[in-house]
Amino acid sequence: MAFLGPESVHAITRVAPIHTEMRTAYVEAPAARVLGLHDGQVVQAVAAMRNDQLKLVLNEHSFNVPLFPYIKEGDMVQLRAQLLPTGKWALQLLHTGSFAGPEAPLAAAPTRLNTLLFQPGGFTSLLALLRPGVLESLVPPVLDAGELKKRINTQRLSMGSLQSQSLKRFVLGHAKTSEASLADGDAVPDNTKVLLRLLMAERSRVEEQDSDTDQSLHHALDELEAAQVQSAQNLHKGDLNLALVIPFRDADPVELQFEQKGNKPGQPKNPLVVNMHTQSRVLGEVWLKTTISNSSQVDLTMWALNKDIADLAKFNASELTYELENAGLVMGSFQVYNAPRPDANEARPAPDHGALVDTQA
Q: Are residues 60 and 139 in the same domain?
């Protein structure tokens, strides 16, 4: 056996990783309702014998094993719930926690972090809750409830009198997590996550029981924290990907996302992309993509489902160009489409393993 020094380690052949093929177990919608699943949720099941057959058992419900015979009795697996357009629920195998056997390590239960890592992107529940008056209406009618309502209202911006400084403060307040502020010994300002947790704690304290409302609050918190975890992952790679929702007192909330790939030595700097999206009950659904390159050139692309809104944006293009020039920016291009944003469509689930797909040109 030859021993290699540090200078020879690079010559060792790298072992190719083994990737487990993804399989899917389907659950009928009634069973999914009993289980209380929500789209993107990560759950843990155990492989156990039921009527002399190996099944995956989740809260006393059993399903077929997707990777038989590789999964054995006693194995712990993680599954991600997906709601299909057909109304069925797909439980997708993510990975096995441990394998059965006397020499197997102890099974690791899925952590909160693992759940957030597999959470699909988007703020469906949060956008619904942050419409004007919705979150405030969920505060329990107790003596000190007025203080929480005041804090929720104070954290909202005003669309009619929106200023750049107030928008900047809001974004910067969400760029650092509450946990990071506490770790640094800084005061934690009110933000959406803090207010959601306060509202959930207040409802629990007064034993306010409403399963649908509580689920919506939990789903919204999952969406928000998943976005923070995924942002931290991208930042670790050198990329910027910050997503948040801006609540308004006088308008429906706006989803905001900042994207920028990390710069590489000797290559041009990557542009900063700012994506905005709103499902306004006044303007209709609107998307806006702003690309800022060379520190001054701005390219805008807008998609609007409402034709009147699209026509109004085209009519005001010259005024927007003037405003950008006053701010020291240069308008590169401005395109407006009376259509949904092409990449805004929901991704279709993968077909069943072995399914035949019939296509025609």
A: no
